[in-house]
Amino acid sequence: MSLVIQAVLFVGFPVAAQWGARKYKALRFLGPIVLCYLFGIALGNLVFMNTELATTFTEATVLLAIPLLLFTTDFRAWLRIARPAVISFTLAAVAVIITAATATLILAGPHDWQMAGMTVGVYTGGTPNMSAIGIALGVPDETFVLLNGADVILSGVYLLFLLSIAQRVLGKFLPAFDYSRLGDDFDDGTRNDFGWRHVLAAVGLSILSSGVAVGIVYLFVPDLPIAAVILAITTVGILASFAPKIRNFPGTFETGEFLLLVFAVAVGTLANVRRLVGAFGEVFLFVAIVLIGAILLHY
Questions:
Q1: Could you write out the DSSP letters of every residue in 108-160?
Q2: What's the pLDDT tens digit per position in 178-232?
Q3: Mind listing the pLDDT tens digit for each residue in 269-299?
Q4: What is the greatest pairwise CA distance in the chain?
C-alpha cells in the first residue's frame, strides 16, 4: 500500500468513525476509539502496511494531542473545589498504584511493569496518559491494544453500574456533589463553534508548544529521551492553559481527541492478531485486578 493511501486511511477513518458513532446506536456503543482500533488491526493484518509510517503517526499524534487536551484545563476552577477534589483524586491515584503494584507482583509477566504504568496513567488521566506512558516505556504495540481493549470492556461494565444503580447504592453513604461550587464561569472545555481554521490554528499552537518543550529538553539532555520530552510537553501545555486566549480557543480539545483516534488506527496496524489472541487472557486479568481493586479501595 502506498504511503499516501495509508496516511489518508489513518486520518480519514477517524472521521468516518465519529460520524458513524453519532448516527448509529450500535457504533455509538462501541465508540470511535474502539472502532479505530478494530479498523487498524484489520488493516494491519490483512494488507501490507509501512510500519515506519505507522510508528511515526503513533508518536506524532500523541505528542501533538497532549498540549491540545491540556490547553482547555481551567485550574482556577479546580482551585474552587480543590480540597475535596484533590483528596479524592489523591486517594484514587494511591489506590491504582497499590493495585497495579499488586497485579505486577502476583502475575509477574514480562510486560507487567509496563502495563502497571499504563493502567496508573489511564485511571488517573485517561487514554492520553496511557498513550503517552506507553510510548515513553516502549510498550509493544500488541500489549497496548490488548490493554486498551480490556479497559474498554471492564470500564464499560463499571460505567453501566454508574449509569444504572450506582447513585442509589453509593448515595446511601456518600454525599451529593455541590455543583454551585463550580461557579457561573465554569467551563467544561468543549466547543461546538469551530471550523477548519480553528483546527489548523490549534495544531499550530500544539506544534509551537511542543517545539518549545523539545528545545528545553535538548538544552539539558541532547539525546532527547522520550519520557523527558513527554513530561516537558505536558508542562508547557499546562502553563499555556493559564492564558485565557489559549484556554478558550475553539476546537483545541476536539482536535486533540481526533488525533488520538488517528493514533488508535495507526497503532492498531502494528498489532499482530495471533499475539493478541494468545495474550488477551493475561492482560484482561491484569486490568481486572487493577480496576476492580482500585474501585474497592477508593470507595
A1: --TTHHHHHHHHHHHHHH-HHHHHHHHHHHT--HHHHHHHHHHHHHHHHHHHH
A2: 656 555 555 554 555 667 888 888 899 999 999 999 999 888 888 878 778 888 9
A3: 887 777 667 777 888 899 899 999 998 888 7
A4: 59
Amino acid at 212: V
Which residues make Cβ contacts (< 8 Å) with residue 114, sequence separation at least 6? 134, 137, 138, 139, 143
pTM of the model: 0.72
CA nearest neighbour of 118 among 108, 107, 126, 130: 130
Query: For residue 275, what is its C-alpha cell?
Result: 499475539
Q: How far is Cα 189 from Cα 105, in angstroms, rounded to an integer?
A: 39
Do 131 and 119 touch, CB atoms closer than 8 A?
no
Burial profile 157-174: b = 16 or more Cβ within 10 angstroms, e = fewer: eeeeeeeeeeeeeeeeee
Neighbour tally for 224: CB within 10 Å: 11
